[in-house]
Amino acid sequence: MGLIKMKIIKGRKVILSIVSLVLGFMVAFSYNLTKQKQREVNLVNQTWDREYELREQLIKQEKVNRKLSQELRKKQAQVTDIEKDLSQEKESSFKLAKEAKQYRMFLGKIKVKGPGLTVTLADGTAGKVDDNINDYLVHEQHVFKVINELYISGAAAVAVNGQRLNHDSYIVCNGPVITVDGQQYPAPFVITAIGDANVLEASLNLAGGVKDQLVNENIIFTILKQNEVEMEPVYNS
Questions:
Q1: DSSP-assigned letters across all residues of 178-202
Q2: Is the pLDDT of residue 237 over 50?
Q3: Does one domain contain both 45 and 130?
Q4: Are residues 127 and 206 in the same domain?
Q5: What percentage of the chain has pLDDT greater than the value 90?
Q6: In this structure, what DSSP letter does residue 39 have?
Q7: Do 143 and 203 have their domain in common?
Q8: How many CB atoms lie within 10 A of CB 193?
Q9: Which ranges of the sequence are coiled-coil (predicted)?
């Protein structure tokens, strides 16, 4: 009886040990499983936090990019305005330079060279002995008519017998000679002009124009186109 009892007690201990072992295994397994799940949860949370952080950074960067894009468009608009202003200033400067050059040419301050023509005015020959010789001489008004027509037709520079004219030039007739800015020249009078030779010639040859008027006043009128005419400045500045 005592032996059976001891066996029972021993069996209970074995069973208790097995139960404890199984229970311990279950507890350990449950702990490990919980720990694994916690790690997974932490990993998911970390991943989510990282994604959220990246998303926030992306949103901030997009805002910065939009702001920079707006500033870039403003700068581009400013550059466009500046380029437009510079273009207008360049065009204005070019026009001013061109006008200044034209004024300097008119004033006779710069050397000019280019195509043009020469108009020669020579005294006519009296048809009768008792004709008035003055009716056949070239006078200052004849020279003026030619010069004015040349300037009106676009001549850049004009000279009389090599004497270049400027803004305050004067021409005075004194019998068979004319005085240009204090210099006397006898006939024939050669008026030289720089400009579009075809235009200048056409303006002088208009029906009823300068040539016809002077020929009707007994003046010998000759036109010769020149490929290149050169005039020195009236005075150096």
A1: EEETTEEEESSEEEEEES-HHHHHH
A2: no
A3: no
A4: yes
A5: 35
A6: H
A7: yes
A8: 29
A9: 58-92
Phi, psi of 121 (to 5 degrees): -110, 115
Residue ending a domain, choose from 90, 110, 130: 110
| Residue 105: alpha-carbon gap to chain centroid | 25
117 and 224 assigned to the same domain: yes
What is the value of pTM for the model shown? 0.58
* Residues 207, 222 share a domain: yes
Residues with Cβ within 8 Å of residue 212, at least 6 apart in sequence: 206
Whether residue 120 sits in one domain with residue 198: yes
Question: Domain ends where: 55, 75, 110?
Answer: 110
DSSP characters for 48-94?
A: HHHHHHHHHHHHHHHHHHHHHHHHHHHHHHHHHHHHHHHHHHHHHHH
Tokens of 27: 């507890």
Query: Is the Cα torsion angle 89, 90, 91, 96 positive or negative in sign?
Result: positive
- Residue 236: the pLDDT is 47
Report helix, strand or coil for 164.
Answer: strand
Q: Does 85 lie in the same domain as 120?
A: no
Q: Which domain holds residue 169?
A: 113-229
Q: pLDDT category, 212, cuts 50, 70, 90?
A: very high
CA distances from 83 to 16, 91, 92, 105, 224 (A): 97, 12, 14, 32, 48
Mean residue pLDDT across the chain:
81
- What CATH number does the domain containing 163 carry? 3.30.70.1880
DSSP class per residue in 104-160: HHHHT-S-EEEEEEEEEEE----SSTTS-GGGGS--HHHHHHHHHHHHHTT-SEEEE
